Amino acid sequence: MRKTQLSCAIIAALASTSLAAQESEAPAKLETIEVTATKRSESIQDVPVAVSALDGKALENLGIDNFQDYVEFLPNVVFQGTGPGQNEIYIRGAATTQSSITLSSVQALQPSVAFYLDEMPVSMAGRNLDIFATDVERVEVLPGPQGTLFGASSQAGTVRLITNKPDHSGFAAGFDTSISTTKGGDMSNTVEAYFNVTPTDNLALRVAAYNDSQGGWIDNIENDPSNGGYIGSAVVIDRISGGALQAQGIDPTDMDARRSINGFGPSEAAVVSPRNSEHVEDNFNDAVYSGARFGLSYIINDNWDVVVQHTEQTLDTEGVFAYDPTVEGESSAIRFQSDENSDEFGLTTWTLNGRLEKLDVVYTGGYLDREIDTLTDYTGYTNGGLFSAYYVCTHYETPDNPDDARCLDPTKYYKEDTTSTRLTHELRFSTTMDTPWQLTAGVFYDEQEVASVGQFKIASTEIFTDLARTLQGNKGINSDGGPFSPEISFVNDVTHTIEQIAVFGQLGYEITDTVTATFGARWYQIDDIYRGATSTRDVTSRLEAYGQGVLDPAVYDGLGLDGQGVVDAIQDGSLDIGLLGDDGVLTVDDTIFKFGLDWKVTDDVLLFANYSEGFRPPVTNRLGGDAAANDTGAFADFRVPVYSTTDTLDNYEIGLKGDFLDGILRVNATGYYSEITDLQTSRFDPTNISFLVFTDNVGDAEVKGIDADISWLATDNLVINAAFSVLDTELVRINPELEGIAAGVGSELPYSADFSGNISARYFFELDGGKEGFVNASLTYTGDRLAGMVMNAYAMEDATRLIYGTGSGLKIKDEGEVFNGATYPGADGEVIRGGRYIQESYVIGNVSVGMSYESWKVEAFIDNVFDKSAILNIDTQQYTPKVVTNRPRTIGLRFSYDYY
Question: How far is it, in rounded angstroms, from Cα 25 to Cα 74?
């Protein structure tokens, strides 16, 4: 059994191959496990593609049991996000911009990595299903495009968590428990158990249950404006609002001179600093996973069997998992509203396995029902929203007395209620004939829906006492349309449905006894159905008008657009609407291919070469057709696209898998070159384009790299694993309207290091009375990584110094003489340069020692031995940088017992 959330297990699985010393009279060898990465059961060393896997025993032997530690065991994969249940997966450097957690449900950008629980895809942009990985059989990770077998969102790779199924061999039961303490934080504890029974020879039942309470270590401290806390700045508010204060004859610099740090009280300060006394709390970032999985396996006859499983889980988190770099230490945040996230899901899956005369038949499917309720501090909008001055400053009420203007308490919040459902069916056939060729083929259907209502409290309630916002349309909405609560300033209410049907196949042909060629293809059709409204736009009616090819300017005028401008853009082709049907549904279809050649040099050495294609479907925008706010320079005649176009990834790779020195040394290595065309990204540019986030295509990129893992059975008692990833990523084309905003041609893609690696060792030794002792140790290194695609770090630093009275102290890579996203000079009067934050390199060490005897095991561990505070992610979604970090040094004890 394993005591960790899914994301932890995935990253561990990428670190190495499953290892164990075999106890027999024959010389010890490295263990090989079976995987189903190609939808056939094969030895991992015989699969002619790059794949990493760990079985449940190997996962347990790693001795690491939290998300941050597992992240370090991932040389070629990144889990990027802001906390449990709020992460995305990137593989081999194919990344652009992190999805905003407050907008991931409505911006609709699809993941580039597919995430599976058994046979069920459970990916979601910005919010991958965070499944606690209890009672796990193995984890498989396939880097590189897997689109022919696994479809859309397998553009850069696929991650699969395979659970233990009901076992017909008899009764089994066990439990695991652990307790730990974190430096400067709360205690954590985990309890999980399973049992397996066989009421009849043909029927087996299995139940696993768990509760994992992860104590916090970040403090929400009281805001102290004179000591790195939030002061507020009218200069920043005026900038982001397009000079709204100065347009009223107000001097924002003079307002900043009359703030609390200058001795002005809350009732007289021109810029009011927010207070958070009622929210101050130590160790406020708690997380609790609780749930159960129920499984049933029934053997119908010698050729047919069925497995049905149901998983229920609740994930509750409080607080944030990032610290404010403007205050002392690396475990303090300043939040002005409660941060709470409740994520519940029920997942039912079923698999029917059968055998016809010459075919293996599998029918599998699943239904996911997920509910997400989020409440989060949104005070940062004051420093990044186009309407900040309108919502918090009083100049609109007193235009004749600019000296009396005040920017009031900026405290804000965001509240979201999202329901996500997904239904999949797959029927596939695999040949079992003793012939030179093997075929796997099937049909796949997927329908996923995300229904979301997001409410933004942005305005000062001292200025706006009863906003009573209503939606601009009623088709496809999930609420009653309003009026909403008097303090709500803006509402998103959308339903996004993706329907996919695909036919796939993969043919392998043995050219000789040792050389095999592989050909795969997948035809797909995807309907992207976007419906709903905001408090400023009727999204459904707008898309229907585009789909029907309406060229009457009055129709678009009535939808909040400049009608004639939209019609002109449609007619000259600058606003593409060709993929929309009459109902406004975006439909695409295509065929992708894979070719491979492998050579079994010896029984222990395999060489392979592959070409494969991956894709992400186009994404509909809720504000397509909006004109740019800044109609000059690169933005002249620019309009928000109605949809982003498909981005594709073509991958070429060669690889080696080999066991050497009589099976005690294993080396698996892959070199690859990838071309990414029309790379999708999310964009937020209120000064130049729009105050709403949208999706676009940033340009083209190339990725070159080497992945390798090495396993060595140094002695019968010592196993050493090592893995590394070398990456060279480069943007080779940038869309014109992004020049000077996104990093330029020749720049690196974000979030992935040029070099990352790890090494771990496990040593066994005999004790008295037949007991066995063991020691585990590991070191991981992650190199420097860049944060995001947009070169806005210097602009953010300038704003941070104005808002907090000090900079963040974070390093910046200088990448441009000017940042075109800033239409204003810096506080020093100079042009703001272009650059991106650097997520600096770090080394993490872990160690554990334990003892096992027959059915029980006890283990003491220290995670993060050197107490390193790593920069996992620089989160700029709050318009000033926050640093997502790992858990400090944690010391604990585990105990487990299994009965067979």
Answer: 35
